[in-house]
Amino acid sequence: LHDRWYPKVKRRNDLAERFVYGVPELIGEQLAEASLISLPGCYATAITLGLAPLTLGLGLNLKTVVVDGKSGSSGGGATARTGDLHPYRNGAITPYAPTGHRHASEVKDFLELARPGTIGSLSMSAYGVSHVRGLLTSSYVFTDEAVDQRELQRAYLRFYKGKQFVRVRRHTETIIPVPDPHVVLGSNFCDVTVMHDEDGGRIVVLAALDNLVKGAAGQAVQATNIRFGLPEETGLTMQPVMPA
Fold this sequence. Notes:
Helix content: 25-40%
Low-confidence stretches: none
Number of helices: 8
Mean pLDDT: 91
Number of strands: 9
Strand order of the largest sheet: 4-5-3-6-9-8-7
């Protein structure tokens, strides 16, 4: 998988096997003793936090997962590319990775190794939108297993109980339907919503975060806090810049 998605990067297998995948809400106990931590990117963080209660919590076998991702300019990466500059992206909906996004393989690999649930296939399309910061992932999940809205909502609340940086939301609880990147900007929160589409035979999972905080540096600080025995929220108590 590494050779396919990162053909120009030589992989040190002896080091790679020592890394833990740094999503604190999912592997916190491993972080406490970790010598090497691998931090996922913003898309991978949002998708993984959105799907984990289904696979790791309920142990569901997901036949197909289709992810639609929309990111502001702050998700454009560290390399300067003309098409990623905000003046070009502003006012546009840019399908920069409609097929074959490498984060889809990363998420599937982590969740399959973590188990107990399984994922048959996970594919992703990614779009650049006018936002300066923040992203939203919409995961459309198809499974043969019977679930309903109440069971799903309870499973998400139970899975993230005590996890202060993941907020399980109801879609209609605010004036602005959530999750929306607008209401997490500047914070280390990831907002997650799960809905059962009975007519469509699917589960819809939405997740929103700030690319530069929970999707990057904020999560790094969170993982470091756990590693060195500090309160998890140290340095991360800033609230969203827009009321949620």
